[in-house]
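Limitations
The structure tokens in this dataset are predictions for the assembled complex, not deposited experimental models. Users should treat interface geometry with appropriate caution, especially where small molecules or nucleic acid strands are included. An illustrative entry is reproduced here so readers can see what is and is not provided.
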Amino acid sequence: MRIADHMIENAVGVYGLPLGIATNFLINGRDVLIPMVIEEPSVVAGASFAAKLARAGGGFKAVSTASEMIGQIQVLDVPNLHQARFELLAHAEELLALANRCDPVLVGLGGGARALEVRLIEQSPVGGMLVVHVIYDTRDAMGANAVNTMCEALAPRVEEITGGRVVLRILSNLADRRLVRVQCTVPAEALTFTADGHLYPGRQVVRRIVEASALAMVDPYRAATHNKGIMNGVDAVVIATGNDWRAVEAGAHAYAARTGYYTALSRWEETPTGDLVGTLEMPMAVGIVGGTARSHPTAQVALKILGVSSARELAEIIAAVGLAQNLAALRALATEGIQRGHMRLHARQQLLAKEEG
Ligand code: MEV
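Predicted assembly:
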């Protein structure tokens, strides 16, 4: 409670959620135990089951980009948008140097401003404007504070250079320069199973999962649910590690709609040998230092359990859990349906509610 009181205003209590550990994860050749904070039945079991399937094909391979966030500075009332854009880009080095004076610690750790981009928006409900993007490497921090501080520090100089008026100075949650990609292959035979006396041959399961995935690629109504299944896994680890799950959610869905059409974050395909391969690509703005990750004692324990040494490693693990969760849902949906397993656990929850009540 003392810690909660330091975290937010008017704290009156602490709201508990179950913390579980998902097993069987092999990620980039390393065995990892996954702490997950989630209230929904079947999620931890589903992730563990799918990780076992992926393990049969060598586990998850994950890669990530640098931890680059985008800080936005909105400039209005610019006398000449094209000229002002030219001037800002001509002053890029000066502005980046100014940005790098904001957080010497982060810069000392190899982070800091990387590039400056200027977007010209000819028309909006309030007329034309410029949007300055400062690309900023936040290393092992989620980085919202560093980016926001830097944007605020740059604003007066941006006004001088452009002759305009700055309004917004804030990071973008569409962290499309901080991406993580993960893949796993599941041998068809690992997907063979029997339920209620019905045999589901592996090859057939592969085909059905690919068909289910196809709908999510072309239909936003299905894509939203498909992505929700991914976020069941992603959010559970994001929360367990004290990270900002609203930021990760916002980034995920904005990324899913980046072409102007909302689609699936992952895709499942059949390999030439008839096995199943799944790929997920999404932004992952998470940190292992600063913020709640540091002040929350359980988040500290979760990070220890994961054994991660960088934010990128954490991001890769989280994406692997998202892909596993997606596989667990699709396998069930494409075969026996999710209700049998789900309702069994749900009944357990209902019983508990009755006992407690
Ligand atoms: C339920 O929390 C998540 C699912 O709806 C995901 C999906 O449909 O892929 C089962």
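Some entries come with short summary sentences. For this one: Residues 2-65+178-356 form a domain with the 3-hydroxy-3-methylglutaryl-coenzyme A Reductase; Chain A, domain 2 fold (CATH 3.90.770.10).
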